[in-house]
Write a structure and sequence with these properties.
By secondary structure, this protein is mainly α. The protein has one domain. About 75% of the residues lie in helices and about 0% in strands. It has three helices and no strands. The protein is elongated.
Length: about 100
């Protein structure tokens, strides 16, 4: 009965590093493909965001020009207070210790 080391051992000695070089070349090619896909989808997403920004710029401008300054200040203060309360309430999650 063969021993475990004999079963798990690799009896064939590779002649050169061609296999390793081929694998690394494929890994590089897949990384390049992944970067290209991420770049393409990122550009498509940026284009959709720019299109949405152009579509919404009119209503957002009308919102800011119609509201009086006091209402705008109150809205900003309410939002800042909500963020401050959330940060204080969820303060346990902000620890910097690892």
């Amino acid at each position: 009965m063969p021993s475990l080391e004999a079963l798990l051992g690799h009896s064939e000695i590779p002649a050169d590093d061609r296999f390793v070089l081929d694998v690394m070349q494929r890994v590089r090619r897949e990384r390049l493909r992944r970067r290209f896909i991420l770049l393409a989808f990122g550009l498509v997403g940026a284009a959709f965001a720019a299109f949405g920004l152009v579509q919404l710029s009119g209503p957002i401008e009308a919102l800011f020009t119609r509201l009086p300054a006091t209402s705008m200040m109150q809205g900003v203060l309410l939002a800042a207070g909500g963020i401050a309360f959330y940060t204080w309430f969820m303060g346990d999650d902000l620890g910097l210790s690892a």
